[in-house]
Design brief:
Blueprint: H1 6-23, H2 25-43, H3 48-78, H4 84-117
The chain binds adenosine-5'-triphosphate.
Length: about 120
Amino acid sequence: MRKPPFHKSFLNAFRGIFMMVKSERNFQLELAAFAVNLFLIFYLNLSILDSVLILMVSSGVLAAEIFNTAIEKICDIIQPEFDVRIGLIKDIAAGAVLLMAFISVVTGVLVYWKYLFI
Ligand SMILES: Nc1ncnc2c1ncn2[C@@H]1O[C@H](COP(=O)(O)OP(=O)(O)OP(=O)(O)O)[C@@H](O)[C@H]1O
């Protein structure tokens, strides 16, 4: 198969993100959290380093959710029926999102703490 031109690959990737925004409730919530973080970065005037930390962990959650959804969709194509192995694969993928979300909450508390209470 011929490789699509660069701008086409870009559009395809955007279509993937748009699909996530339109149809994945968890992604919508995580995107809202990302927007709140953007607001807090400016409102609390975070340092560059703290801003980068917050941006990295909150976008990490979004990326993990995208991979999780992609894995779920592959699983549903390969095996639409109940299958313990598919359940385990989906649980593992969901675990990556949970782990990333946990790390981002801990990072958020550690970073915002000094701007709010110190
Ligand atoms: N085909 C299957 N066979 C066995 N268990 C499954 C199967 N499909 C889903 N499950 C179980 O149901 C859970 C939820 O799967 P589902 O595909 O509904 O994802 P979801 O509700 O969109 O989850 P998420 O919140 O992680 O996006 C899985 O983590 C898994 O434990």
